[in-house]
What does this fold into?
Amino acid sequence: MAANKFAELVSYFQLLASEHVSIKNFYRFEVDEVLTDLRDLDTPCLIMEGYKFSFTDNKSDNILKTRGGAFILLDHVKDIGDFNAIHTAWDKLEAIGDDVLARVRSDRHVLSSPVQNFPFESVEAQLISTEFGDFYGIRFTFDIVCKFNNEVDPSRWIPTQ
It folds into this structure.
C-alpha cells in the first residue's frame, strides 16, 4: 500500500478527464463552490474536490490512513423546466462515471498508480443540481487507503537538551 499525495491524485483525474472523449474540461473546486457559485463552465466536465482523511489504529503497529475524496461530473441544461433534458444529462453523466470508474479499476493494477488502493466498495454517487438550477451532475465519493508511516524521523525535530 503506497502512500500517495493529493497532487498525484489531482493529476491522475485531470489525465482521465483529458483522455475521455465526452469530458470537455477539468476543474478544481470544492462542493460548496459547485453548488452555489458556478456560471460559465465548459461541460460536460470533471471537477475534483479536496479530500479529508482519517486513521485506523486497530491497536497495532499497522496504522492505516484513509483519504476520502470526491469528484463531480457536471453538465449544463438550458431549460431548467425540461425534466427530460435533466434526466438525459444525468443518464449521460452516469455512463461517463461508469467509464471513469472502470478506468480507475483497471489502473489500480499499475504499481505507480495513485488509485492503487481504491476500494470499490467505498464508492457512492449522488445526483446534484446547482443553486441556480442550470447545472446538473453526479457527485462520486470514494476512499483511498494506504499505510501510515508511524516512524519518527529525527531530522524533522529540533533536538531538546
